[in-house]
Amino acid sequence: MHHADTARRLILVDGSSYLYRAFHALPPLRTRQGQPTGAIKGVIAMLRSLRASDPAALMAVIFDAKGKNFRHSLYPDYKAQRPPMPDELVAQIAPLQEVIDAMGLLRLAVPEVEADDVIATLTTQALQRGLEVLISTGDKDLAQLVGPRISLLNTMSDERLDEAGVWQKFGVSPAQIVDYLSLIGDKADNIPGVPKVGPKMASKWLAEYGSLEGIIEHAADISGKVGENLRATLPQLPLYQSLIRVKTDLPLDIDWTRLEPGAADQPRLRELFTALEFKGWLQALQQEDHAADTAHNAAQPGPRSTRDAPSATAVQDLFGAEPGAPHAHYVTITDAATLQSWLDKLVQAPLWALDVETSDLDPMRAELVGLSFAVTAGEAAYLPLAHRSLEGVTQLPREATLERLRPLLEDPQYAKLGHHLKYDAQVLANHGITLAGITHDSLLQSYLLDSQAHRHSLDVLSEQHLQYRTLHYEEVTGKGARQIPFAEVPLEQATRYAAEDADICLRLHQHLWPQLCTQAGPRRVYEQLEIPLIPVLARMERHGVYVDKAHLQTQSRALAKQLTALEQEAFALAGEPFNLASPKQIQQILFDKHGLPAKHKTPKGQPSTAEEALEALAEDYPLPAVLLAHRRLAKLKSTYTDKLPGFIHPRTGRIHASYQQAVTSTGRLSCSDPNLQNIPIRTPPGRLIRQAFTAPPGRLLLAADYSQIELRIMAHLSQDSGLLAAFAAGEDIHRATAAEIFNRPLEQVSAEERRAAKAINFGLIYGMSAFGLARELKLEQSAAKDYMARYFARYPGVQAYMQASREQALSQGYVETLLGRRLYLPDIRSRNAQRRAQAERLAINAPMQGSAADIIKAAMLKVDTWLQHSGFPAMMIMQVHDELVFEVQAEQAQALGTAVSRLMSEALTLHVPLLVDIGIGENWDAAH
Fold first, then answer.
1. What domains can be seen in the chain, in order of their start residue?
2. N or C: which end of the chain has fewer CB within 10 A?
């Protein structure tokens, strides 16, 4: 039967399935007004792609109706484990449905049944009308419908299932899917199935006995624990079948002409895409309008790039559709003439995008494999320099060609653009080239526009802003054990991938930079802090910090002995040996055997063994205290003393950590490979680890640390006269606060009162409640409330600032740092009280955290500029929290301290002085 060649197709889209999947799989996009749009964009992109794949097909989009359905009556626990739909998703349903309607698609939601039942009934009716059916879903339940003229398509994974595909994926036929799922269960629907029966066992039984009925008949013959479980579950199995089997005979009264391809309501689509800020699709609509206006006299169009004008039939969907054909204007530079023509283009271009292809992700170990350039959208080139798979093509020699490029790369008058350009600069530095003219970075543009977004990769941003799916790295190199180095990728593919990266980077810049230009604060932070910081961070990473490997190994051995001792102590307290790394065994020992109170519960209602739970118990019981001590030492050993030696570069003997600018929401630098910011500061083991960070002979380390910077920013922002006066007088701020709260002279403040004031000072910065303060100080909640009331009475400006921050966040959807960095807070209007409270805490804290980040970055720029111009014999080697660390010639250490203290205190002018503590020593710990 070859129906596919002749029959018209009906495409049925499981809208509910895709709504959830797009929400969880795609970046959490928002408009400037805070309207979430990620799921809307994902579903619409998939619908556009489906419609473009078969413009003549009939089509409908089916959603679950509100409320319960007949399955809940059969089984009250049906989907009971599902949490309520998140507010961010609820807010996207109505706009999504409006777009679907404006696209001219039939949208259905039938009460008391599920989308699956509607899809099954429409499928049955379609077969009676001689149609072929394609069901677009991410739900495996619908595999039961697959047949000669029915197939499934999961557009998120690009997986298509016909009858053979169902056999291959599940090991059963479509007719056996209901029985198969009844046996293994379905977590998504809270159907338990037979305990311990997995896909292999279920498919084996169905192959042997044909159906669930056959298995039930032979249940007595099945041995072992699974046989027992099967026999125990027999009464429930018919219920599970009826829950999983979809209804194919609903009394649907559908006008089938409404499934025919309908004309879109273009004005309404324009209105919706404008409100939702889908700029790429807006542009496509405008071009379609223009094309329609001129169609009567237009010539037959020639080939063109799908990226220049994404349209309803050309837009690349977000779920893995095949990338478009190689761009007509992507060239491979393999001869001197082509190289010269591109050198000429680069000289003349006001800005060009640059991207490197390398042998390694670690910039300190990476060698250059090739370079790509883009000068205008759609015009890019790849210059291979170290490929090993050339297929008869000769590539230009690497070192000689780099010398040709050096004048352009090192001259600041040639403006460069990249995506995470710090990496490209590091790799070029490995070949003796100091990249200058770093003018723009699309990664940082995206970050400054929305620091809350978790992913700023080129691939994600291309889908998000250009509606174009890039060719992904693993599509050209392969995955896992079969992955090949980029140097072995054939040149045609390598050019398509590398040139596209430069091209997309340039297009993203053209899309993002105008948006950034409309926002004075974020633009100022971008131009004055983030872009100038790129070469500073690159230099700091390349210098690295010298680490004493032998010291770390000694510490690992010492920690191993301490862990053994703690383990023995835990065994003695427990009355038996147990696995200290097993939450289940800890649960049994603490709560079942010893009957300790379960002060914290897991989401499943079990007694928690998390750190917070153990801390609460450790106040009254010795065993949880020992478990906590063991856990913390074990983490130190595994994370630092065991792992840090592996980060020491074999050539330099140093650790070259990587600092990311576009990770934290507040603007703080993030550190990785290794993360130096998590080494405990005040604990003895943490101090011992810091002692391994040393200076070579004849040199010392200098640590310069901002003192109480966030409290000083709080005083500046709140303009509270009491705080301003205390800082201006150079008083111990915690002692001064205690004197105010407890109404006594400074000299009479006790250590306990100072500790309480310190807890309030720092707690307010992080939005601590009276409950949190009571727990911190081990007080009654009424006493903590009294402390906070006294604090606000003495410092009314602080309370006014906190209220103003909340109101600003509520009215404009974001808060700002002193320099204008923005943090968007969409949850400030959330109906979920917990999320709203968290957003309110962020509204207070983010301006302080973010301003502290801005200040330390400004300080890094000032100090680096002075070091570069003065030739002073020192180098900046680390940035951790509010601290900068330098390596300096021993005899120059004091002079460096004086200069750095002055420069850091002048980084930004506040209404209170910025105080800098300087420490000098042979290692990082001694410099404190």
1. 3-171+248-258 (3.40.50.1010), 330-544 (3.30.420.10), 546-649 (1.20.1060.10), 709-845 (1.10.150.20)
2. N
